[in-house]
Amino acid sequence: MMIRTLALAASATLAIAPAALAEDYPCANFTIGFDFTALESLTPILRRQGGEAAIDAALELPSVQAIVRKQTQSHEDRSTAERLREELLAWQSGSEGEIEDPVYPFPDDETLSGMEAVLSDFRADPETLMAPACERLSVFLPADYDTPLNSVFVMGVNSAGFAFGDPVLYIGFHRMYDDLPALELVLVHELYHGAQGAYRPVSEETEAALTEDERRVLDYLRNGYLEGSAMWVADPADFEGDGAMLDYFQTRLERGVRERGNLFTFFEASLYQLANDPTTDPRRHYFAGFTGEERNYNVGYIISRAIEANYGRERLAQVMTEPPTVFYRLYAEAEDRNGPELSETFLAILTDMEAALERAEAEN
Ligand SMILES: [Zn+2]
Question: Its Gene Ontology molecular function terms (predicted)?
């Protein structure tokens, strides 16, 4: 009995690692944990406190290592632990103005103080943010969803929120700490990614049995599903507020929906090239569709909206447990798409992908 209890306690600790500093927030059949270690360890350094030891201790934290990992997406080999250490040393000595082409956009003193104030309000009263966030999120999850989610608050990244495909999500708190509706929007969007990360509908073995071209197509389709559905769950049109960040999300959605025909054409063009031109760099297509204007988010949003309208919210929730091809197939077969039809080219690539997955699965 004793051993069993200990084992349970150990696995519970692992599930919410690294450190959950606030109480875990219970939501439906799962909990949402919080990790503020990156903010807590980096804030004094940015305020010129502590010595090198404080920097080295911060660099040991998984939450701080995630900042390095995220920034490799836009800075590639320039984002390393060593580079972060150098930039933090500059901040600590007050010479951050001399950093040439900084990799980590750290906030100034005034922003840090603002972040601290909002964070202490949040820790004193998590309900104000978390009750509506949980309500929004939980209705879009499979009914039996029970994997704990861990929310890690960070800064020094270009992104407002991100996730790496597991039940851990990251909030770039410096980007919208002073815009509560935008914070809730980003939090729900990333929590949805966290939940999606609890499933692995296409196993590693199956993916390994795909050809390089097939894997690239699958990745692109998967990103379209992941981003579009998360955007639909945290639908910018559903939020009210006058903050700049929320306005940015809402305006971009309006632009996208107005131009939906063009967006689907761009999506298909990249898909076609990934499927047929082995020399094309998949990162170019990822950047073109999923960063900046984030056009493909709107494509996936329109598809998610149609799936919910035609098959119900439960069906859309279920897609996180299935290969991403299902997402596009449901849209193609929907009676009322309220969006562009998928072209013959798109459908042919989709059919090939479905066959490839079946073949790869049979090989395992
Ligand atoms: Zn996202």
Answer: peptidase activity
What's the CA gap between 90 and 16, in Å, rounded?
33
Mean pLDDT (whole number) for 296-305: 98
- The residue extents of the domains of the chain are 18-198, 204-363
Residue 15 has pLDDT above 80, yes or no: no
Nearest C-alpha neighbor of 347 from the set 216, 225, 221? 221
Distance of alpha carbon 315 from alpha carbon 129, whole angstroms:
27
- What's the gap in Å between 229 CA and the centre of ligand 1? 9
- Cα(179) to ligand 1 centroid in Å equals 18
What is residue 259's predicted lDDT score, i.e. its pLDDT?
Answer: 95
Task: Give the integer Cα–Cα distance in Å for 230 and 163.
Answer: 12
Cα(19) to ligand 1 centroid in Å equals 24
Distance from the CA of 309 to the center of ligand 1, in angstroms? 22
Ligand 1 centre and the CA of 115: distance in Å? 23
Q: Ligand 1 centroid vs 252 CA: distance in angstroms?
A: 14
- Give residue 75's pLDDT: 86
Cα separation, 149 vs 136, whole angstroms: 15
pLDDT digits (tens, 9 = 90+) for 99-111: 999 999 999 999 9
CA–CA distance, 11 with 35 (Å, rounded to integer): 18
Residues 6+ apart with CB under 8 A from 205: 364
